[in-house]
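Could you join me in thinking about how sequence relates to backbone shape in a protein? We need material for that, and I hope you will provide a protein of your own picking. Label the sequence line and the structure token line clearly, so we can match residues to local backbone shapes. Would you write everything just below, so we can both look at the same thing?
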Amino acid sequence: MENLDLACAELGSALATIGGVEEKLLIDALSVLEEQGPYAFFLYLKARGGKPGGAISQKCYEFLRTHPTERALLRGDERDALAHVRASLADDLDGLLLARDLLRQALIYACYHSRTRGGLRRGR
């Protein structure tokens, strides 16, 4: 059985090491995810995140394409993350909720990693 919490921790660690990522961006993205869901999360990162947001989006997108390993949440070969999220999770409520939970856990770990490293700026 796959330990998804550990996978989220690894993703969170990777997110915290992306160059130019500020803690504020991670917290804002987490808020959007909590309040409005995975599609809004990816859309927010595309609209507001600039280069760091794009890198966060790409890592999260690849994570959902490969996890859980037995049945990845995003199936198919869409190149556009937004289209892929829409197509894969639109009629799969369990998958949508699992994707939200996994991304939330990874972003929480990313915030913790950023604080322990002290290397990220808080931003405004």
